[in-house]
């Protein structure tokens, strides 16, 4: 058999290139291209026109005109962002609100995931189903429902007053507390699901061994369950934190006028000022801020895969 | 309320798009929320066979954002005069074909003359409704808190912090409309309500900030229900909306009496204009609708329902007495003199106005 044989490794690498190209193509089409458009607008100037900024590239005008409009771009909008403290206050407040709600979601979600993972195997699909079930109703409608629950004459206040726990209705709606409730409620499944996955895979014999060796249950939890579920905790926390930073719907519907979040600031910039260039600049900065936790998340995922593989 | 109107419009939209597929002729209208007697749309369809797809908004800013993005798919939109003038400048609208609008002769010359300021020659738009931005209040609660001689006919009710502070316990709502609140504050301070001077705007911002801690919410449509239910006792609102709240309260018979006042210091007079976007697909149908809405009986029906004055002179004899006879809707000539109008802000000034408004609202 002198016939040359293509080394199988080379074939595999070609196939895997094609495989990798799909997500990269996806990323380029739905992330990079929109990002470049937004970035370009962020360097433009506001104008009374359709669309409301200049220069808007007209590719039919030829190369020379294209280069001229390139030279009209400026970083002025970014300078504007640094001159006004509203923007960094919004960024900061968004990160704080997202971090606090992520922490609360973890406190609420961990026992749920733990309980699910510990329940009899026959129940688990049902429990999992119950966690996913709220997604069958529109997110918007579920947030609206919270208005009915939290408002001054709402269900919660009626219940507490009829139980005699409070005499005056609590003002929850239109405050930051309502925003926390909204975020924790909406994002809870995103934390529970990865956490449940990692808790379910936990090797039960480790806990049995600990028990045999006289380790009390809480210590066994602290020394075995918690460290082993950490990848699930981290994955769940990122899945809550990252979208919560840019959240608009929840603070807009449940928050008060002094709830400062970057999603709302962006909305005001876009809809009330109709200032596309500045709102694009705000969006670019928001993206840069979010890239850091996303990269951390990626690294963590990779580590996990390497370990599992 | 907002939610129900949102849901119904979504439902209506989906039903109607379904129907529109079967029928060829349709017209897409984008109007303010709670701003039409829906039977007008049904009658129009019955008479002409043109399906109406009706969608609603509650802020001029949202409308303008969509219009400036282009390709809205709407055939008729209803911006306020100040916004209309800037949109005309941006090339958003196409001129009306007046040969198709035989009912233009019904329109009220006085209103057309005032609209000239925004739409010279009324070339791009017809007036739908006009009204004022003033104070809606809960009669019993305001009197209970501030006494019998409460200054209900004055901006003092809101802009005097001692009044606002007391009224805060029963709730104050303010329109989320900087282009209407800055003129009101400027006017109260004795400055030109149409001032574009950033120093003046800052002064108005300072005044609004002193009131800010006592305002429960800045919102442009929730106050209708809130006033009617007695959840709040004062709202800076649009005349007809407050009067709708008055009627809802009367219907509910819940012991709440709502009144509207045009403050004696003056109030903003505004004009909501129907116009056809340049990229509208159904311009023929849009003209037919505009001509239909200018029929005296149709316009009278609209005003009788929404409690706003209209720009249609011929419709006036068909109006109900509680509309044409109500000085809060059709103010007498001497009261009209006390009303002011404003023009739009240039983009850079607009940025400062919005920024000041954001800092008023957020308290930052």
Automatic annotation (TrEMBL), chain A:
CDD domains to which the protein is assigned, alphabetical = TM_PBP2
Q: Where are the transmembrane segments?
A: 17-39, 86-114, 126-147, 177-199, 220-245, 276-297
This protein's superkingdom? Bacteria
Major localization listed first in the record, in broad terms: membrane
Listed InterPro entries: MetI-like (IPR000515), MetI-like_sf (IPR035906)
Protein topology in the membrane: Multi-pass membrane protein
Regarding protein family, the annotation reads: Belongs to the binding-protein-dependent transport system permease family. CysTW subfamily.
Protein name (Swiss-Prot/TrEMBL)? Putrescine transport system permease protein
From TrEMBL, chain B:
- Do the record's keywords include Transport? yes
Q: Where is the signal peptide?
A: 1-22
The superkingdom of the source organism is Bacteria
Name the Gene3D superfamilies for this protein.
Periplasmic binding protein-like II (3.40.190.10)
Which keywords, in A-to-Z order, does the entry hold?
Periplasm, Signal, Transport
| Transmembrane intervals | none
- Is the Signal keyword given for this protein? yes
Compartmental location: Periplasm
Explain the purpose of this protein. Answer: Required for the activity of the bacterial periplasmic transport system of putrescine.
Query: What's the family?
Result: Belongs to the bacterial solute-binding protein PotD/PotF family.
Q: Which PANTHER family match?
A: NORSPERMIDINE SENSOR (PTHR30222:SF12), SPERMIDINE/PUTRESCINE-BINDING PERIPLASMIC PROTEIN (PTHR30222)
Query: What is the protein name for this chain?
Result: Putrescine-binding periplasmic protein
């Amino acid at each position: 058999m002198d016939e040359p044989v293509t080394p199988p490794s080379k074939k595999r690498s070609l196939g895997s290139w094609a495989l990798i190209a799909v997500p990269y193509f996806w990323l380029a089409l739905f992330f990079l291209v929109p990002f470049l458009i937004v970035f370009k607008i962020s360097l433009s100037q506001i104008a009374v026109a359709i669309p409301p900024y200049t220069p808007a590239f007209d590719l039919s005008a030829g190369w020379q005109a294209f280069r001229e409009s390139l030279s009209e771009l400026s970083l002025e909008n970014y300078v504007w962002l640094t001159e006004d403290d509203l923007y960094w206050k919004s960024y900061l407040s968004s990160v704080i609100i997202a971090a606090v709600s992520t922490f609360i979601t973890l406190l609420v979600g961990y026992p749920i995931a733990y309980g699910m993972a510990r329940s009899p195997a026959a129940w688990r699909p049902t429990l999992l189903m119950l966690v996913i079930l709220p997604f069958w109703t529109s997110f918007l409608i579920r947030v609206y429902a919270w208005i009915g629950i939290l408002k001054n004459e709402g269900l919660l206040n009626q219940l507490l007053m009829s139980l005699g726990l409070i005499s005056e209705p609590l003002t929850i709606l239109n405050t930051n507390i309502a925003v926390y409730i909204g975020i924790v409620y909406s994002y809870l499944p995103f934390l529970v699901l990865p956490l449940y996955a990692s808790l379910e895979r936990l090797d039960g014999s480790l806990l049995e061994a600990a028990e045999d060796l006289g380790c009390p249950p809480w210590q066994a939890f602290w020394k075995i369950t918690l460290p082993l579920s950490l990848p699930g905790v981290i994955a769940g926390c990122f899945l809550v934190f990252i979208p919560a930073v840019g959240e608009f719907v929840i603070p807009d519907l449940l928050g008060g006028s002094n709830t400062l979040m970057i999603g709302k600031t962006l909305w005001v910039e876009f809809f009330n000022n109709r200032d596309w260039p500045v709102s694009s600049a705000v969006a670019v900065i928001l993206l840069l801020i979010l890239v850091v936790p996303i990269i951390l998340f990626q690294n963590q995922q990779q580590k996990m895969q390497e370990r599992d593989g | 309320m907002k939610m129900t109107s949102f849901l119904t419009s979504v439902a209506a939209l989906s039903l109607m798009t379904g129907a529109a597929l079967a029928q060829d002729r349709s017209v897409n209208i984008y109007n303010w929320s709670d701003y039409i007697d829906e039977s007008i749309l049904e009658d129009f369809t019955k008479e002409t066979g043109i399906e109406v797809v009706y969608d609603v908004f509650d802020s001029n800013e949202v409308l303008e954002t969509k219009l400036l993005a282009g390709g809205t798919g709407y055939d008729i939109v209803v911006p306020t005069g100040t916004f209309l003038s800037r949109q005309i400048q941006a090339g958003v609208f196409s001129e009306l074909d007046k040969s198709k609008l035989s009912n233009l002769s019904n329109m009220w010359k006085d209103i057309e003359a005032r609209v000239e300021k925004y739409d010279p020659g009324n070339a791009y738009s017809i007036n739908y409704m006009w009204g004022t931005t003033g104070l809606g209040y809960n009669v019993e609660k305001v009197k209970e808190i501030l006494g019998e001689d409460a200054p209900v006919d004055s901006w003092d009710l809101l802009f005097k912090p001692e009044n606002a502070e007391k009224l805060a316990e029963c709730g104050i709502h303010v329109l989320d409309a900087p282009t209407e609140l800055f003129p009101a504050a400027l006017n109260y301070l004795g400055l030109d309500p149409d001032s574009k001077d950033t120093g003046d705007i800052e002064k108005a911002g300072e005044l609004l900030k002193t009131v800010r801690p006592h305002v429960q919410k800045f919102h442009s449509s929730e106050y209708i229900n809130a006033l009617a239910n007695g959840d709040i006792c004062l709202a800076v609102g649009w005349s007809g909306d407050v009067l709708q709240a008055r009627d809802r309260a009367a219907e509910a018979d819940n012991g709440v009496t709502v009144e509207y006042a045009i403050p004696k210091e003056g109030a903003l007079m505004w004009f909501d204009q129907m116009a056809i976007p340049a990229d509208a697909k159904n311009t023929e149908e849009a003209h037919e609708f505009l001509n239909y809405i200018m029929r005296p009986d149709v316009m009278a029906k609209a005003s009788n329902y929404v409690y706003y004055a209209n720009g249609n002179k011929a419709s006036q004899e068909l109006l109900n007495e509680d509309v044409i006879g109500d000085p809060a809707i059709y103010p007498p000539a001497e009261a009209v003199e006390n009303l002011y109008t404003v023009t739009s802000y240039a983009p850079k000034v607009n940025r400062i106005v919005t920024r000041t408004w954001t800092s008023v609202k957020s308290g930052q």
